[in-house]
Write a structure and sequence with these properties.
- With about 170 residues, this protein is α+β, with helices and mostly antiparallel strands.
- The protein has a single domain (about 15-165), classed as Muramoyl-pentapeptide Carboxypeptidase, domain 2 (2-Layer Sandwich).
- It is built from six helices and four strands; from the N terminus they run H-H-H-H-E-E-H-H-E-E.
- The chain has helices spanning about 15-40, 45-65, 70-80, 80-85, 110-115, 120-140; strands at about 90-95, 100-105, 145-150, 160-165.
- It has a four-stranded antiparallel β-sheet with strand order 1-2-4-3.
- Strand 1 and strand 2 (about 100-105) form a beta hairpin.
- Helix 1 crosses helix 5 (about 110-115) and helix 2 (about 45-65) runs parallel beside helix 6.
- The longest helix has 26 residues, at about 15-40.
- It is globular, with a radius of gyration of 16 Å.
- The chain starts with 12 loop residues before the first helix and ends in a 6-residue tail after the last strand.
């Protein structure tokens, strides 16, 4: 298991249970897509498509719960609850109406995939597939864009996840 992807805060039983649930979800995703790959299916297309659809559903739910429609700050606070920030050890680097910059210090999904022997390029691809959920979430908001930087699955210390307000095109 990667030394880069170790949770630093492990004393909270609720957060540990949430992490366990996400690891379980990651096992399902990883095993299903690994099986699809081994059977010759276009596992990447299947994964991206399914996870994007899940993200769209999640995005609609976030939109309904936001207290200020169209606000990037409200979006960030609604999506990234205190529990989610603790589970993924997220540090909010910036949050305003133009940018939401986050660094994830731990990923339970990577933990799951590594538990079943997934490494290297497939690990990075599974991560990118999982991030299609965030792409789907952002896609429910015409005002925002999603940007993925470096990731733990690529061997980096953190994942860089950013949402920005789309620039208005002047006519």
């Amino acid at each position: 298991m990667s030394k880069l992807n170790q949770p630093k805060r492990t004393q909270d039983d609720v957060i540990n249970k949430l992490r366990g649930a996400i690891i379980h979800r990651g096992l399902w995703m990883g095993l299903i897509l690994k099986e699809a790959k081994e059977r010759g299916f276009d596992w990447e297309l299947i994964g991206h498509s399914a996870v994007l659809k899940a993200g769209c559903i999640h995005g609609e739910s976030i939109k309904e719960r936001m207290d200020v429609p169209g606000s990037l700050v409200s979006f960030g606070n609604t999506f990234f609850t205190e529990d989610i920030k603790k589970v993924f050890e997220i540090e909010v680097k910036k949050i305003n109406e133009e940018e939401l910059e986050l660094e994830y210090g731990y990923c339970p999904l990577v933990t799951a995939w590594q538990q079943i022997g997934i490494e290297g390029e497939m690990l990075a691809t599974l991560c990118d597939i999982a991030m299609s959920g965030d792409r789907g979430i952002a896609g429910r908001f015409e005002e925002f864009e999603f940007h993925l930087g470096k990731t733990i699955a690529q061997g980096h210390r953190v994942c860089e996840v950013n949402f920005t307000r789309k620039k208005q095109i002047e006519k």
